[in-house]
Amino acid sequence: MADTIRLTTSQAIVKYLIAQKSVQIDGTVAPLFGGVFGIFGHGNVTSLGHALERAKGELPTFRGQAEQGMALAGVAYAKAKRRRQIMVATSSVGPGATNMVTAAGVAHSNRLPLLLIAGDTFTSRLPDPVLQQVEHFGDPTQTVNDSFRAVTRYWDRITKPEQLTSSLPHAIQTMLDPADCGPAFIGLPQDVGAEAWDFPVSFFDERVHDIARPRPDRAQLGVAIKALSAAKKPMIIAGGGVHYSLAEAELAAFASKHNIPVVETVAGKACLEWDHPNYGGPVGVTGGTSANALAGEADVVLAVGTRLLDFTTGSWTIFKNPDVKIIGLNAARFDATKHHSMALVADAREGLAELSAGLGDYAADDDWSTTMANEVAQHNAYIDKIASKESTSESGLPTYAQVVGAIDRLADENTFALAAAGGFPGEVNNGWRAKTLNSFDCEYGFSCMGYETSGGWGASMALPHKDVVVFCGDGSYMMLNSDIYSSVLHGHKMIVIVCDNGGFAVINRLQTNMGGEPFNNLIKDNPTVTNPVAVDYAAHARAVGANGETVESIDELEAAFLRAKEANVTTIIHLVTDAYSWTEGGSFWEVGVPEVSDLAGVAEAKAEMVAGKADQRIG
Q1: Secondary structure (3-state) at 507
Q2: What is the CATH class of 218-379?
Q3: What's the rounded Cα separation, in Å, for the pair 208 and 224?
Q4: Which CATH class is domain 4-209?
Q5: Which stretches of 474-592 are assigned E, i.e. beta strand?
Q6: What's the pTM value of the predicted model, to 2 decimals?
Q7: What is the mean pLDDT of residues 520-544?
Q8: Which of the four pLDDT bands, split at 50, 70 and 90, describes residue 610?
Q9: 618 falls in which pLDDT band (50, 70, 90)?
Q10: 3-state helix, strand, coil in the chain (%, to 5)
């Protein structure tokens, strides 16, 4: 029939993805899917791989080195594009698929879109068990791909080609929904991927998607206005949802008009420039003294676009005013109602606009903004001191704070900073001073070690005119570094600062702070290590085609960074840093401390933990 086209399931997937377009930040229209990260195997090479090859001019395929890494690059790409463009990651069945589960968890916890397409076993079951198939004796329908159910917003296994006409639109709408945004998974059995069907031609019509902007319910809006208009010490917590809603200008206008301090979560950092008069600093466990002091006094907290992670709320202890009210302005009802918050379910930009209109001329007292300014000044003075070129560590080695400070001083409007997990979230959250909006990505929703270099590759792909600077510890680098090679292969330059402190130093800090003996975190503290070889990170970089330098001082780091900016290829800059010096100023954080131990320090830490929980908000 003229109104149908005969395609394999794999061909139809590729053709449908190409037909999807989206409205970008600047109002232009671009492909919704920026490309495919692919590692081919027997589950996806002969059918999906063939379809991608035939469409390589319209939907480019980028070759990753490890499935987890390429999917993490897709997460960073979506974040840099502020959820307006999405990457696909495809693998074979078996270990290729399960390698992507961690990346799916990163996307899910950070509310970021990522389309995962993994090969699957034969629906006919005639060749079973096939290579890499994990058999479940009591449930032959179950495969390793079922493990994605826990870490995706949308999950489907295609068993007939015609199911695509329902499944693909639902997957895309899930990834674009501001409330339900997250990764989508499609399982593609080997025989189904090759099977053909007469698809309606109209199924492949071009469609332009725009992100929905739900407006607030009038009743919820009225409650929020009443609470805020009575506030003496209001505070705004800005989360990642501000970025995804493109609400930065509205946030700044709201804060200025109503004279309200704004503190930022890790995901919300760079919603305001660091020197904005209403900027109160980073909040929570990885935050600073200024924001946490403000949170302790606030009587009304407007939480905008944040899921209120324990690191943001200090395990729900930073709100010390017993009468504090929290307004949850969020597109997701689940996040808007956390801990008995007054829900204001709406798009961040539109919600702020309508809330501001309802507040009229309301503004907090100048005494409150003066308090904020004094707290911020003290915090900035502290950061200036620990980030200076003169080391404050007992060892005399450079500290993480100095490294961040050095690069921050050299940063300009084209610098994009990226970090994840380990010790860097607390350091960059405090020491990186955002000079431009949307210039920062620290993956801390899933706190995924290894995100750094893969995420740097994805961010560089999304932001080709930016200097993507990756802050990475030696532990994360050793865990996953293969996408340095990917960045070289594809010409996506990044600058990676590798701080070598001899292992997993920040978790060693937690271990000893909770009364434990240092064990298994720093390499030197593991008695089974018999040959503690120092890694030559610069040589490794050069071995995969990148530039590599080892430096010993902050002056040398600055000079190397300037050289890296001028280079046309990825550069790794390595330096040994102190393992025991960290930025202070964070809040209480609840962790499990043993109730019984023969170490006196553990008992003391347990008592302090119990005392700290006295400020914990219940509900």
Answers
A1: helix
A2: alpha beta
A3: 34
A4: alpha beta
A5: 495-500, 547-550, 571-576
A6: 0.97
A7: 97
A8: very high
A9: confident
A10: 40, 20, 40
